[in-house]
Design goal:
alpha/beta
Length: about 400
């Protein structure tokens, strides 16, 4: 590839809305890669999986969702969240629940990923447990024999609960089906600032509200920002994915401190770079060192462009200062990213996909068709369990309470 700058085919995107400038250094939307308005026959939701780190009151909506769909609620807890409190809340709602404090999860239960090891202890180390929780949810779903599950974040609201049934109804055709996220936009810090300064910025689907089927359990969430975009990718491109229904993201402050922008930058660069290739009708295998050298320069120009837009459009004051500080933090972290790091990360990611696939297959072979609490106990996974109103009588009789 020409390291001076590859020529990308024009992205297949709609014209920018009137009054919204479109940057030559950035693709503001990847929605054309998704199928929308597909016909679906609603199907049964087997489980709703919720990674949470917030106080228990943030789970009230997902407990109601699980009650509506008469499905199991899987709650993966850390920080301010507690498996004991989550279990009690679900029990009051008559919902079958499996709640896990992830700090108690034995290390052997999940494989060691090269994508994590190569960044550990360095500037690009992501010290969160979000991906761990999502992968643990996949493992629980796989060994439980579930066919259709939905990830819902604890700060996301689903106004029409039946949208989840429609989403899982599309899983016979699509690998992942996301709800269209409204409310507060779900973007990186850099893309938030671009939108607020007037740029044409869209959102994509993600695990804030994402239905996945059994075939998808062989994919995994790397420990990096935009881990859900990586989950939706196959070896060469985006797995068949669709969007339907609506979810509402609760507001948050993306500029509260500069660390958020720093920790997002590598994942945002990798994901935007890969999806930029897909926008141009090209494959992931074209992401070589020459491509990343070109893309990283383009990304740096984009961040500088957004800083200029913020300076020109935002009123002076603390909010503007925090936006600029966050953008400068992202730009500084970007300058530490070398093209070879991007190549090496993708090599490790492909290897980790094989590791995860083998791990899930081994776990499923080792554990037969038994009630969920029995399977989790057999796995050696500490958990809290309460049956719900729809739990099978034989399971209710045998496993009225399972706790560490």
């Amino acid at each position: 590839m020409n390291v001076a700058g590859p020529v990308l085919a024009p992205a297949r995107v709609a014209p920018a809305p009137v009054g919204r400038p479109r940057s030559a250094n950035h693709h503001g939307s990847h929605r054309h890669l998704l199928t929308k308005d597909a016909f679906a026959v609603p199907a049964e939701v087997n489980a709703i999986i919720v990674p949470t780190a917030r106080p228990t009151r943030y789970l009230e909506h997902v407990v109601a969702l699980a009650g509506h769909h008469r499905c199991t609620l899987v709650v993966l807890c850390s920080h301010h969240a507690s498996a004991v409190a989550a279990t009690a809340l679900a029990e009051r709602g008559g919902v079958e629940v499996v709640a896990i404090d992830v700090a108690d999860v034995p290390r052997r239960l999940l494989p060691q990923f090269e994508t994590t090891a190569m960044l550990r202890g360095g500037r690009f180390d992501r010290r969160t447990d979000t991906s761990l929780k999502r992968n643990l949810g996949l493992l629980v779903a796989a060994v439980s024999g579930w066919e259709r599950v939905v990830y819902v974040d604890d700060d996301v609201v689903i106004p029409r609960p039946d949208d989840l049934g429609t989403a899982v109804g599309l899983l016979d055709t699509f690998t992942g089906v996301g709800l269209s996220v409204g409310g507060y936009p779900d973007n990186s810090v850099v893309c938030h600032a671009y939108r607020e300064a007037g740029g044409d910025q869209d959102t994509f689907i993600g695990t804030g509200a994402l239905a996945v089927g059994r075939e998808s359990f062989a994919s995994f969430f790397p420990n990096i920002y935009n881990e859900d975009w990586f989950f939706l990718l196959g070896e060469t491109g985006l797995a068949p994915s669709a969007v339907t229904g609506q979810a509402l993201q609760k507001p948050y402050d993306p500029y509260r401190d500069t660390m958020r922008a720093r920790t997002e930058e590598l994942g945002d660069c990798l994901a935007e770079g890969l999806f930029g290739l897909l926008d141009a009708g090209r494959g992931l295998t074209e992401a070589d060192a020459g491509y990343w050298r070109w893309f990283l320069g383009r990304r740096r120009r984009f961040i500088e462009e957004v800083i200029g837009m913020v300076v020109d459009t935002q009123p002076d004051g603390p909010a503007k200062d925090r936006m600029i500080a966050a953008l400068k933090a992202a730009g500084g972290r970007n300058r530490l990213i070398e093209p070879q790091l991007c190549v090496d990360y993708l090599t490790a990611w492909r290897a980790d996909r094989e590791v995860w696939r083998d791990h899930v297959e081994d776990a499923c072979r080792s554990h037969g068709d038994r009630p969920v609490p029995a399977l989790l106990t057999e796995l050696g996974l500490p958990h809290h369990y309460r049956p719900g109103a729809t739990t099978a009588p034989e399971t209710r009789a045998r496993y009225p309470v399972v706790a560490p």
